[in-house]
């Protein structure tokens, strides 16, 4: 095995570790909502924020910290050794996951989620920047697809184990496993990544922020961030929270199946769709994947009606009694993964292409993250408000509609700036 392959595998392991920790928290979010029982909170006696805002902060604390961390981490990756930065944020992630064990309040949970957000952002930026930098143009989306597939494989394993272990033992063993995996990834990268000799002086964000292709895809990505944050976060919440708050009240293991379905199909398809993107271009895959995601998201609240119309079973071996909505919800979650498998490697490869050509691949991925952050912060706060004030189904209606407006805006700007054939030429 040559040295480059060893480095790719080390980076794939990093993606595995990050995906495992991230999805565990997503899967158990409904359990934390029930365990910590968020209520209205008085802020310095000046005003009161409602339970919906506190629930939104369970995710917004994570995404807000990611937003703050993007620019300094991406700058450090281009200015110094990306491998050293990666090892540092992996070590930080190891500490963060250990701190979830003693958490016993909403404030503490939000704080540790913020620390996790910094670690996840740094690991994602540096690992993808290194994969993009080590890859030739003709294999870049395929290698990124493989890296993402590693994260999705971890997501599948993490979701299943999180649900099963929580039902049997509670939170502590779950986080012990994550800490071990993160520690192994940290040591592996420290031992096997070559020195990164690229050094970009100045502030590459400035030039890349005016890149025409990046500006064009920004019209899609800023809106799509709201869609994915709402849908990806609220599918397991919808499955797991009580019927009184609009959910289906499934046990943790059943909730994990709804998460696994999306990750499995995404993992299965991404290396192949990445290869097709390398061959046929990026824009078409972004457009088709984003549009399909929006259409499927709109159908999620109709899971109970679909199950009833098809007379599907409401009980299953091991899982026990659920409802006829279970199989449609799992199926729709799987379709969300198929749709996103078209969009994600093509989008990532586009940013890697532009960053490599302009001499700032970490900053290019940093801009990609920054475009995502406003929507990913606003999305969960909006979702918490919609869930408590209007109805759970409106989380998915707003998420699906935002994905569709994003792809239509992207198509309009793409055609206006680059011509009608640009959709198949990028």
Automatic annotation (TrEMBL):
Which part of the chain is the Major facilitator superfamily (MFS) profile domain? 7-418
Instruction: Read off the Pfam families from this record.
Output: MFS_1
List membrane-spanning regions: 12-33, 45-73, 85-103, 115-137, 149-166, 172-193, 214-231, 237-261, 282-302, 314-338, 394-416
What keywords are assigned to this protein?
A: Membrane, Transmembrane, Transmembrane helix
Q: Which domain of life is it from?
A: Archaea
What the entry lists under Gene3D superfamilies is as follows: MFS general substrate transporter like domains (1.20.1250.20)
- The protein's name is MFS transporter
Q: Which organism is it from?
A: Halogeometricum salsisoli
């Amino acid at each position: 095995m040559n040295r480059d392959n060893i480095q790719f595998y080390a980076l794939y392991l990093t993606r595995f570790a990050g995906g495992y920790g991230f999805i565990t928290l997503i899967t158990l979010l409904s359990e934390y909502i029930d365990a910590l029982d968020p209520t209205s909170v008085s802020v310095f006696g000046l005003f009161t924020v409602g339970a919906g805002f506190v629930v939104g902060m369970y995710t917004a604390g994570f995404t807000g910290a990611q937003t703050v961390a993007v620019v300094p981490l991406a700058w450090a990756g281009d200015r110094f050794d990306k491998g050293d930065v990666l090892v540092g944020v992996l070590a930080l992630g190891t500490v963060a996951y250990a701190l979830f064990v003693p958490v016993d309040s909403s404030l503490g949970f939000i704080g540790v989620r913020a620390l996790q957000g910094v670690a996840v952002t740094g690991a994602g930026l540096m690992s993808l920047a290194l994969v993009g930098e080590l890859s030739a143009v003709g294999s870049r989306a395929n290698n990124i697809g493989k890296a993402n597939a590693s994260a999705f494989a971890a997501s599948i394993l993490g979701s299943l184990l999180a649900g099963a272990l929580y039902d049997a033992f509670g939170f502590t063993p779950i986080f012990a496993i994550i800490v071990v995996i993160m520690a192994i990834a940290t040591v592996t990268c420290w031992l096997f990544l070559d020195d990164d000799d690229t050094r970009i002086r100045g502030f590459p964000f400035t030039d890349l922020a005016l890149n025409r292709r990046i500006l064009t895809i920004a019209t899609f990505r800023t809106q799509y961030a709201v869609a994915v944050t709402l849908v990806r976060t609220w599918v397991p919440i919808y499955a797991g929270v009580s019927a009184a708050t609009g959910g289906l009240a499934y046990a943790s293991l059943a909730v994990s199946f709804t998460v696994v379905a999306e990750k499995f199909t995404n993992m299965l398809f991404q290396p192949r769709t990445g290869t097709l993107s390398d061959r046929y271009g990026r824009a078409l895959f972004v457009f088709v994947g984003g549009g399909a995601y929006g259409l499927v998201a709109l159908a999620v609240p109709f899971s109970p009606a679909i199950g009833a119309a098809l007379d599907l079973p409401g009980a299953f071996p091991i899982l026990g009694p659920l409802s006829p909505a279970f199989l449609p919800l799992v199926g729709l979650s799987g379709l969300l993964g198929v749709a996103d498998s078209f969009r994600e490697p093509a989008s990532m490869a586009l940013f890697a292409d532009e960053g490599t050509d302009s001499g700032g691949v970490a900053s290019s991925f940093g801009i990609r993250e920054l475009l995502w952050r406003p929507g990913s912060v606003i999305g969960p706060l909006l979702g918490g408000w919609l869930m408590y004030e209007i109805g759970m189904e409106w989380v998915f209606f707003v998420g699906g509609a935002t994905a569709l407006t994003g792809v239509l805006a992207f198509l309009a700007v793409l055609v206006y700036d680059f011509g009608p054939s640009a959709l198949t030429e990028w």
